[in-house]
């Protein structure tokens, strides 16, 4: 809708408000038995003439308002007609439109879908400028190089065990148990000091899933199997889980898969000071009743969610 059409529509609405006010005042005037008493020297005929003059002036004012409203409405463009709803028109044939306003709801749905198409068309060129893929290769590479991408998925279990155990032995306050309840892919049961517990699911070298829980929370189900999916009941560890999944995507490097896992575990190890180290920016231990739940991906400095750079 153009600016001129909007201006005309606003003007028409203003004229309607003025007309309604003048019409209400006129009916109140007539309903109250309007008359002009005049002076004692005026005759009855003069008083009636004065009363008629006032009424004529009021009706002329209403007439002018009607004329102005008519001109404003005629200047508006006519609607294009009802929406073409296709076969959905037949849905409403067996019911009374005043009882089931299905057509109005369908029109709202169509308008909403049109907005979705419009917004998605605007968002696509913006998002296409940013690479959201977990790979450094584009779609135009040869088939031979595309097949090489699966190397990070196909890894000997012994190689994964050796690398993970080597990382675990380099720190005294982290314990990593390697399980394989899903076949050849490893599941890491991580215990970080007395601060938190974590489950990380690997597919080869690629980290597929991470969940963080408190040190006092059970990591197994009632049947004794490892609980892979349930989130923590504590808000602080829910925040850490969200940040861990963001870090998982950040450190993903298909060209150096083993390094990506070690970088992620090094980042996760920085949470050993979750409840002891203050925020790097504000210097406080708590903000909104939460400790610094974010760790910088390069420097590993702690930050609150609202303080992180």
From TrEMBL:
Name by which UniProt lists this protein: Mediator of RNA polymerase II transcription subunit 27
Q: Which UniProt keywords apply?
A: Nucleus, Transcription, Transcription regulation
**Originating species:** Orchesella dallaii
Family assignment? Belongs to the Mediator complex subunit 27 family.
The subcellular localization recorded is: Nucleus
Q: Does the keyword Transcription apply?
A: yes
Q: Name one Pfam family in it.
A: Med27
**Chief place where the protein resides:** nucleus
């Amino acid at each position: 809708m153009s600016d001129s059409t909007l201006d005309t529509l606003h003007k028409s609405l203003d004229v309607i408000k003025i007309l309604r006010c003048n019409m209400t005042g006129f009916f109140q005037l007539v309903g109250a038995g309007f008359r002009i008493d005049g002076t004692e020297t005026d005759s009855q005929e003069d008083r009636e003439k004065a009363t008629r003059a006032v009424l004529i002036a009021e009706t002329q004012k209403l007439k002018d308002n009607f004329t102005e409203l008519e001109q404003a409405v005629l200047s508006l463009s006519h609607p294009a007609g009802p929406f073409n709803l296709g076969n959905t028109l037949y849905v409403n044939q067996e019911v009374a439109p005043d009882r089931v306003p299905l057509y109005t709801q369908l029109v709202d749905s169509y308008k909403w879908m049109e907005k979705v198409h419009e917004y998605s068309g605007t968002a696509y060129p913006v998002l296409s400028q940013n690479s959201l893929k977990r790979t450094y290769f584009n779609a135009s590479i040869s088939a031979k190089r595309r097949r090489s991408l699966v190397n990070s998925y196909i890894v000997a279990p012994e190689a994964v065990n050796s690398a993970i155990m080597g990382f675990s032995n380099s720190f005294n306050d982290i314990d990593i148990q390697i399980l394989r309840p899903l076949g050849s892919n490893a599941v890491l049961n991580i215990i970080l000091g007395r601060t938190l517990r974590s489950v990380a699911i690997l597919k080869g070298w690629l980290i597929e899933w991470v969940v963080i829980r408190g040190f006092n929370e059970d990591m197994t189900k009632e049947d004794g199997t490892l609980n892979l999916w349930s989130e923590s009941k504590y808000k602080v560890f829910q925040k850490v889980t969200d940040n861990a999944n963001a870090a998982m995507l950040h450190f993903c490097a298909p060209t150096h898969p083993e390094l990506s896992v070690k970088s992620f575990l090094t980042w996760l190890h920085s949470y050993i000071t979750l409840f002891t180290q203050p925020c790097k920016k504000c210097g406080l231990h708590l903000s909104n009743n939460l400790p610094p739940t974010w760790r910088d991906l390069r420097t590993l400095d702690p930050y609150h969610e609202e303080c992180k750079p």
